[in-house]
UniProtKB/TrEMBL annotation:
The keyword Manganese does not apply. The lineage of its organism: Bacteria, Pseudomonadati, Pseudomonadota, Alphaproteobacteria, Rhodobacterales. Residues 11-65 form the HTH cro/C1-type domain. It comes from the Bacteria. Pfam families: HTH_3, ScfRs. This is HTH cro/C1-type domain-containing protein.
Length: 434
């Protein structure tokens, strides 16, 4: 059901939650109870002053009655249903989120935790299967047990053994038992879970992105070439593989900052209306560098928020700076119609395209993308490509048609998509406005 059709339902839910009678609310806004009844059953359109008056009486912001649930929340709820494979009423996702935003957020948070725990279990399983220290410990235990069993079986089965041989076998059993005790203790200590709260595991990419999000993806120290990246990584709480990823990210950031200094680049962005092609010509910089630099503009200085995504030639996401509404599924596979993927088939060709999501408000984004080879060129070796895409939210209406994109196929309601890889778990009826 489209968002506007749900406005009346939201009004009714807010009224009932507060225990207000329909007649009292109608009288407060100057309409008849019968007319309010038609509104609450979505049989009359509502807007302007009447909507404002109703919001005032109900004590809520008017946008809570008209906009419904955030599109990103809806996508995450549908993704949660897709991941669990249950019998959730997907067609009523928006209604549920609008009526119970707190519970909806809880469902999404639990789905994220389940996904993180599943990933943690996979990592532990892989560790058990391939960890050399664990394999050596188990080998020590099995070896000691086998040796004790062999010596004991000889003592049991051989009826006549002289005292010297018996003493030797007893010494062997004693030594092997000590070795078994030591190796068992080492194995238990290795496997023992510390008596502390275990944090949910995150991939190194997610750790890096979460740390950058806390700084709004703008790192002032990296604007200088002399920045201590190791100290900054420690300040951000990054270690291990995440710190190594940050070192590569910081090196790229500093290289971009040296080529496009923030002060002059910021002024040029405002003068060119943030046009990447003009900025690339003005600073004699390649397109992906300009896209990365645009995404790092500090929003606190009045610059618009822009998202950024990079992927390798397999389509695997290697970096993500999100913006509201722009979702990219790591687990279920992203929609192949996003410009970041089409750029891989046209290396070094800049792409500018508008896209629209299959939500009720047909959310649009303006995307700039380009795929470029990375690393040194070599004979008889295929180039390593990396695709970069800048995502601008709420663009001005363009002249061309927007590309219809989605999230993952499992939660995309577009029934006529020729790029679909698998059936959707939601029907056409769940596609608001489609």
């Amino acid at each position: 059901m489209p968002v506007k059709r749900l406005t009346g339902s939201r009004i009714r839910e807010k009224r009932l939650d507060q225990g207000l009678r329909q007649a009292a609310v109608a009288e407060a806004v100057g309409i008849s109870p019968s007319y309010l009844n038609l509104i609450e059953h979505n049989r009359r359109r509502i807007g302007g002053k009447l909507l404002t008056d109703l919001a005032r009486v109900l004590g809520v912001d008017p946008t809570m009655l008209t906009d419904g649930a955030d599109s990103d929340l809806l996508d995450q709820m549908r993704s949660a249903a897709a991941a669990m494979g249950g019998e959730a009423e997907i067609a009523r996702t928006e209604e549920f989120a609008a009526r119970y935003p707190g519970w909806s957020a809880l469902v999404v948070a639990q789905a994220r935790r389940i996904a993180a725990l599943d990933e943690h279990i996979l990592a532990l399983t892989d560790r058990i299967a391939h960890d050399p220290q664990l394999a050596n410990s188990l080998h020590e235990v099995i070896s000691a047990v086998t040796s004790i069993r062999s010596s004991a079986s000889i003592l049991v089965t051989q009826e006549q053994l002289d005292a010297d041989w018996q003493r030797r076998f007893h010494q062997n059993i004693h030594k092997d038992s000590l070795r078994l005790a030591d190796s068992s203790e080492a194995l238990i200590a290795y496997l023992e879970v510390p008596d502390t709260t275990v944090e949910v595991a995150q991939s190194p990419f997610e750790q890096l992105e979460n740390a950058l999000a806390l700084r709004d993806y703008f790192l002032a120290p990296l604007e200088q070439e002399s920045a201590d990246t190791a100290a900054l990584a420690q300040e951000l709480g990054l270690s291990g593989p995440a710190a190594q990823l940050f070192e590569a990210y910081a090196a790229q950031y500093q290289q971009d900052a040296a080529l496009l200094p923030m002060q002059s680049f910021s002024e040029a962005c405002r003068a060119t209306d943030y046009d990447p092609s003009q900025l690339a010509r003005q600073f004699n910089a390649d397109f992906p560098t300009v896209l990365r630099r645009l995404s790092s503009l500090p929003t606190g200085e009045g610059h618009p928020r822009m998202g950024l995504a990079t992927c390798d030639v397999s389509g695997a996401l290697t970096f993500l700076k999100p913006v509201p509404g722009f979702t990219y599924s790591r687990t279920n596979g992203a929609c192949p119609l996003w410009p970041i993927f089409s750029a891989l088939s046209r290396p070094t060709q800049p792409i500018r395209a508008e896209v629209s999501l299959p939500d009720a408000s047909q959310t649009r984004f303006l995307c700039y993308a380009m795929a470029m080879p990375v690393g040194a060129h070599q004979f008889d070796v295929a180039p390593v490509l990396q695709s970069t895409m800048l995502v601008v939210a709420d663009p001005a209406e363009g002249a061309g048609l927007a590309i219809p994109v989605g999230g993952s196929c499992r939660i995309c309601p577009r029934s006529d998509c020729t790029s679909r890889r698998e059936p959707a778990i939601i029907g056409v009826s769940a596609a608001s406005g489609l």
